[in-house]
TrEMBL record:
A matching Pfam family: DUF3253
Region (Disordered): 1-20
Domain of life: Bacteria
Lineage: Bacteria, Pseudomonadati, Pseudomonadota, Alphaproteobacteria, Rhodobacterales
Listed InterPro entries: DUF3253, WH-like_DNA-bd_sf, WH_DNA-bd_sf
Source organism: Lutimaribacter saemankumensis
Protein name, UniProt field: DUF3253 domain-containing protein
Amino acid sequence: MLMALAHARGPGKSFCPSEAARRLSDDWRPLMADIRRVAAGLPLAATQKGVPVAPVQARGPIRLQLEQGTD
């Protein structure tokens, strides 16, 4: 689902991982740790305030997008 969201947005566009969690459950907040863990294993770049971060270690909101060269 994360890759589908990233491809739907397209190169250079980001999305919040909570978008994926909200599609899975109305009670989406408990899913966020798993969403970030899965994102870490995919060809997605994670940023926080425009700075690259590791999705699992980052605290607070992050954005995900396709890594450069992934289309």
